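In response to reviewer comment 3 from the previous cycle, which asked for concrete evidence that the modeling workflow produces usable outputs, we include below a single protein chain processed end to end. The sequence was submitted unchanged, and the resulting structure tokens are shown without manual editing.
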Amino acid sequence: MDWTLALGSLIVGVVVGLTGMGGGALMTPMLVLIFGIDPLTAVSSDLVASMVMKPVGSAVHIRNKSVNWNLVGWLAAGSVPAAFSGVFVLRALGNSENVQNNVKISLGIAFIIAASGLFARSYLRLAERARHRDGRRAADPTEVPTVSSKPVPLILIGVVGGLVVGMTSVGSGSLMIIAIMLLYPRLRANQLVGTDLVQAVPLVAAAAIAHIIFGDFQMSLTAAILVGAIPGAYIGAKLSTRLPGALIRRALAFVLLASALKSLGVDTVITGYILLGVAVLAGPVWMLLRAQQGFPAWPATERRQHAADATAHPPAAATGVEGEQPDVPHGQRV
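The workflow returned the following structure tokens.
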């Protein structure tokens, strides 16, 4: 048992529990870039570990009846065969050395998509809060909403997501949830997460089985991942109400960008300049986006305003009635 790897997996598990971000977008770059594991081996072992962990979170949402099974069925119709086929696509790309290089390039592209998805998800949450504040958003349904079936878009999302997950292990929790959110904007947050988690179970299982048969799966590596990741996810979930999850997600997007550049073979000096430019520009750009949505540029200013409103008008602040915006937990600020 590699206890150093287990410790790294524990840290990744905590972050996953804190943010709800898919573990593949964090675990795979850690395995490849920090521990020097071959990309195909990292993808194979991470997917098998995810196959064990995914049903745990899914069971909670199934018990809470926050899953839209109609959407799950159509997504799985596209994602399951596509995920299984993703391994064959890798094998068709070349010999063993070429496969590893192609997987590394695919990982770089997937990391960029995942980082972009994190930004898109934060902005969509910000825009939703603005609509709620201005009374432009319809009231949340008290039950799971009835949504019309859109078989073709759902199957296409499943096919694209399945291929990406099968080839890179990234996307089931950081890419497909964005597509579902855009296709069904009226789904409540818990229904969106529940549906995404449950549809990822057969998706990840199909990809994992294909990697066990045709990939480079290593049981010892997977065991070390599970030993750390399972308790880490539990700890992260417990801490999620106390720590600023939005800030952590932005830091993760930065880490994913760095991982993407290294996976794509970008020179270290150029990587440093790119990351420096992103670090300098990210703050002002996000402040501008907040201002465009009518929020104070600094989240701390908004928190002080909410505290002052709660003191001056306790009933309205507590219930969110008469046009007042309900207070947003500190960990959910965007």
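Confidence is low (pLDDT under 50) at residues 316-333. We consider this sufficient to address the reviewer's concern, and the full set will be provided in the supplementary archive.
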